[in-house]
Every structure is written in C-alpha cells, then in structure tokens.
C-alpha cells in the first residue's frame, strides 16, 4: 500500500472476563463477554472496520475475544498473537503498531486496560485541523470524554491517519468512532 493513503487503526479492549482461580493470563471470558464479542464484530463489519491484519494479546480472554469477534466480522484476516501486547503500556503498544507491514491498510489490536484506553487518548490528544474529517470537533471531544471516563470491555475506538504505520505518533490519528456493547444494546 503506497504512503499517503488513509489507514485505519481499530483498538478493541478484550470482552468481559471471568475471575476463576487461575493465573491472570489464563482467565477466560465470562458469559457477558461471550455475548458481547460477536455483537461488536457485527457492528465493526457494518461500520466498515474490517481489518487486514490483527495483533492480539496472548492472554486467553483476548484470544477468545478475537475468535468470537471474528465470527461477527464474517472474515478471517491474518492474526499475530503477541505476548508483548499483554501488560504493554500505551507507548509499548504504539511501538508494536509502528512495526505493522506497510501493505496493511487496516489493523485491529485486541488488548487490555489500561494500555488500550491510554493509547486511544494518546492518539486523539491533538485535535485535527478544521475541516480535516467528517466529525466535528465537538463530536470528537464527546468521544474522547467518554473514553477518558470509561473504556469498557469489548469497546472499540477507531482511528484514521495518512502515512505509514511507522509514522503514527501521539495526536497524528483522527478518532472516527467509539462504540461500546451497551451503546449497541440501547440502539437495539
């Protein structure tokens, strides 16, 4: 994919997990998580947020989230399960994203709190120039306020930017949507 084209980055926090007596890395999804992941996948499909590549934490709850989200998406892009996503900071997650192949137009990252919401806020830190996108500054501000207040399980923040993946920096991407399973249930 040539430089200068629009790319999409989708950040997905893993779905709701259960708390059995197992190590944190091995925690499975709770029933609510099993319900929410395919719903958010269907919404992503309908919103045109189909990834070309997936970067997923190796934690069981994240990999289960991806498997169920994939059923909702109705597509099976290549996936890289990477242990570095588990317990990554926002900066470390951004470094992993910067290593994405230039051929990838849309990347989905399935990760954890606090890295996913912190990265979302970091990327949206600088307001886009006037007229730079479909959303008004007010709409973007409302979405960032919602992310700051709570980035619940199975929530999605989507961004667009122009350039190569290795050029993504704080404030360089435009927040295009923030969706939670609760939002979809209320729309019902």
Question: What report would you give on this structure?
Answer:
The chain has 6 helices and 6 strands. It has 188 residues and is α/β, with parallel strands linked by helices. The protein has one domain: 3-Layer(aba) Sandwich (Rossmann fold), CATH 3.40.50. A 6-stranded mixed sheet has the order 3-2-4-1-5-6, sandwiched between helices. Helix 3 crosses helix 4 (115-123).
Radius of gyration: 15 Å
CATH architecture: 3-Layer(aba) Sandwich
- In order across it, which strands form the biggest sheet? 3-2-4-1-5-6
CATH topology: Rossmann fold
Please give the CATH class: Alpha Beta
Label the overall shape. Answer: globular
Order of helices and strands: EHEHEHEHHEEH
Number of strands: 6
Taken as a percent bin, the fraction of beta residues is 15-25%
Number of helices: 6
User: What's the N-to-C terminus distance?
Assistant: 37 Å
Mean pLDDT: 91
Q: Which parts are unreliable, with pLDDT below 50 for 5 consecutive residues or more? A: 127-133
Q: Could you give me the name of the CATH homologous superfamily?
A: Phosphoglycerate mutase-like
Q: Main beta sheet: strand number and arrangement?
A: 6 strands, mixed
């Amino acid at each position: 994919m040539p430089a200068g084209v629009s790319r999409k980055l989708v950040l997905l926090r893993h779905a709701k997990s259960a708390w059995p007596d197992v190590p944190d890395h091995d925690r499975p999804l709770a029933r609510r998580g099993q319900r929410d992941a395919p719903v958010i996948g269907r919404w992503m499909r309908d919103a045109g947020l189909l990834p070309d590549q997936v970067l997923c934490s190796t934690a069981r709850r994240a990999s289960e989230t991806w498997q169920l989200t994939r059923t909702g998406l109705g597509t099976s892009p290549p996936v890289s399960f990477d242990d570095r996503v588990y317990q990554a900071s926002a900066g470390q997650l951004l470094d992993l994203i910067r290593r994405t192949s230039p051929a990838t137009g849309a990347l989905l990252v399935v990760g954890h709190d606090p890295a996913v919401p912190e990265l979302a806020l970091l990327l949206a830190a600088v307001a886009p120039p006037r007229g730079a996108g479909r959303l008004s500054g007010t709409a973007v501000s409302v979405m960032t306020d919602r992310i700051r207040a709570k980035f619940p399980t199975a929530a999605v923040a989507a961004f667009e930017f122009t350039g190569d993946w290795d050029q993504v920096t704080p404030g360089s991407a435009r927040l295009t949507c923030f969706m939670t399973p609760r939002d979809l249930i209320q729309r019902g």
